[in-house]
Amino acid sequence: MSTTEAPPSTGTNGNGASGYRWVGTRPVRHDGLDKVAGKARYAADLNLPGMLYGHILRSPHPHARIVSIDTSAAEGMPGVKAVVTGADFPEAPPKGATRNLMCTVIARDTVLYSGHAVAAVAASTRREAKAAAEAIEVTYELLPHVLNISDAMADDAPVLHDNLFTRGVEPRPTEPSNIAARTVYERGDVEQGFAEADIVIEREFSTQAVHQGYIEPHACVVDCDQEGKAVIWASSQGHFMVRSSTATVLGWDTSRIKVIPAEIGGGFGGKTTIYIEPVAALLSTKSGRPVKIVMSREDVFRATGPAPGAIIKMKVGARDDGTITTAKAWLAYENGAFQGIAAMLGCMCVVSAYTLDHLYVEGFDVVLNRPVNVAYRAPSAPAAAFAMDSMVDEIAERVGIDPIDLRIQNCPSQGDPTPYGPKWPMIGLRECLEAIRDSDHYQSELPEGQGRGVASGFWFNIGEASSATVNLNENGTATVITGSPDIGGSRASMALMAAEELGLDVHLIQPVVGDTEVVGFTDVTEGSRATFATGMAVVEACRDLKEQLRKRAAKTWDCDVEEVEWVDGSAVHGPGEQEPLTLAAITGNAKRTGGPLGATASLNARGAGPAFSVQVADVSVDQETGRVTVERYTTAQDAGTAIHPSYVEGQMQGGVVQGIGWALNEEYIYSDDGNLENPGFLDYRIPVASDLPMIETCIVEVPNPSHPYGVRGVGEVGIVPPLPVMANAVADATGVRISDLPLSPPRVLEALTAAES
Amino acid sequence: MKYAAPTTIDEARTLLAGDAGAIVFAGATDVVPQMRAGRPEPSMVIDLKKIDRLMSVSLDGDTWQVGAAAPSSALTSNAAFAADFPGLTEAAGLIGSDQIQNRSSLGGNLCNASPAADSVPALVVNDAVAVIAAADGERRVPVADVVTGPGQTSLAHDEIVVCFELARPAGGTSDAYLRLIPRTEMDIAVVGAGVRLTLDDSGNVSAAAVALGAVAPTVVRVPAAEAALVGSSLDDTALAAAAAAASDACNPIDDKRGTINYRRQVAGVLTRRAAGIAADRIRTRNGQNGAS
Which CATH class for the B2-167 domain? Predict the structure, then answer.
């Protein structure tokens, strides 16, 4: 069997030198060949006999009351088999997460953003469905709209929800507003801190909303039978979530729904919710036929997943010796049309990479007439880090300390308090800082005319519920079934952990993502949790199997099970009176020793290990056009233990690249009338391959004691530092500090021109 | 929607004349995405890539004939053409990704009539002439006169651009094209600048052509910048004057791709840089000739 040729990691580990046989090696992913050969099946690839195509009609207005919907013309059009509107769905409760989900899937009395789903048609062909949807007559009464935080927070702002009263304010407001919630974290006395500080810097920052930019648009096929059972094929980050969310929106019992996970073409957090499955389910129920809905790219941009834009005002105090003592932060985050927790997360992250005596962090979650926020890699942390790490850079400059040394001087370690309450467990921030400090990149001389920037980033990571079933086959191979959709190489990691536990060649293990009826409940692949939490379930099931294997050997040998050890994939007789029995020998004989061997584990994973990343970039800036070119980029990240170093590096690089896009060019451009002007990859500019150097990686391994192999999640934190890294590097190259993203050529040139005059 | 693939120009023109809703296409690299984005479907699409003359690239005496539907890659892979028109070749090579290069064409790039078309400023500075098949035979029109506004051309419904005629440049002449895009590929020009220069034996500019893209509804020829360059040794003063003239000639809009101020500023920068590249090319070639 072949293994991939990967660039060697320069980290403290990630090279299989950990004493493990399989963990830390780099086998080709089990799903790789199908993907490369174009054989992998995504949701849009499925076609069923008699299948119809669904098309969703979307609001052209950012805020309007739906006066009436006339579907009669559409219903009479060629090929049309079913039409649904919000009136066909169960009534939504007056407020709360359930209402937000239900009203995101389809608008009821009010549309809250341009692109909001209003009605849908199922017809024999895509063209017929589209033509009929466009023939639906919707009468709107236009309402004033708000598209940005400042306008939405203004006293005279048009209010999106007349029953939304700001949480976290005492006394409770008597008037509704667009401010959904206020969050505060505090410690010490910031006024005293600023009074005692030698240096106090105050700045205001803004970041733009961005899209996750997954290449595969949302797609599903839903087939409802006459008994009311529905089978859903969908691309998502969690098919159990698709099941429960679809059931919620339709008011169905979850047992009516089976969800089969399709291969997923990117999610990055954006596929942790649903948009189209309940619509397809109702169309299928009404028509009696399977219904496919595939979003267009334009639909994806207009109606799904922004990560929020933010405005952050910060004041930071430090002593002349470089000790950062005090921070006061005011953060406001867009939530989109319905309230979320973006600002709360931002508040928790904003100063997490620093120890502080005094802090006061206040956050505001703000609703406005844009699609509702969805998670995007370390949600809310990038904007927060942009603010804090830009200021830390300025402090380093002022006190004349190397920016990495300054961060080491101020970094928290185990036992220090987090800004949001509990004490830090074992974390690897210092190790990441040291790894960058000692890297070839940071030690290299900065080429003439370039600028260098560094920054750190934090993300929590989470555990949640996972299930795994491991079946040993009669030929001595194993099938590992989990409920975690594989969005970043997790199948390979599951197989490696099972291989390590069982002592079986990883290529004899087939990792499978099971549907909602073949594997136990598993939460969404989010929070960098799959390899950590689902991996824990896999390890637990394998350890159960090893016990079973020892018992079968004991039975075969007619000895006490205590005399049997499991060593390198074989049962070994302690006293040495028997020839070892391989796993294949035991499974081949299983019918005579008690039947097939399989084990299942379901658990709530506790003790997710916080993730940190530290990054450095060299950039050059065209002083006459404002174009920024990334010349060199290195990222260090604490993986805990890298189960599959290549895919850990892939996650690190992917996060960096998305963060660079956020920093340099990505932004939503809305017209004054509230319509998105760049709903496609031509004018919504994610980086292309030729924009970037190879992102150099440095895996740091500070094991998470809560995981059997020390795993921390690696999927998210990589996107956090690039925003401040790029801003700091541009400041170093030009002498001009820009605090509004993106650092697009027009913005950079404007700042340079302004600085000159 | 019907599809037709005529093999002669007459056949294509007859199809077009017989159906007011028909359109022609070469690479379809604009037409297909436009239809996907909601442009009303035409009643017929007429594929021009089966007509030999529209696909050929040839040197006829001192004149290059570039088929209007010939793929960009046919230019970028033609060393003789690229040596005569390095700037135009680069511009043609900027239309889309490698895959798109095998479909996209100069005729399509021109007749799509986008203000940001990369090849048009480069065609204009090289005095390219569009050969148009019309009801009463062929007519010849300077490329600068084909596009009349965004999405609008001077072609009648039943007219087709057949090819471009480009006179081989005189000695001491070369061109350059630069564009500003925020990324490195897969993007549309925020500003484009084409420059062609002729240097005399003493290295002074004896002729100059400057044309800008994406800064006005149609490509902008900049006589003031040309005047600033002619007679100069491309000294800083002349280059600065040319840049200022280019900035002044812009009539841009604020849109999602750039602001008015940004486009003005960058138009000057790119004009100056493109002039420098064109001059370097002439000097390099002269140097090589001198050596041989």
Answer: alpha beta
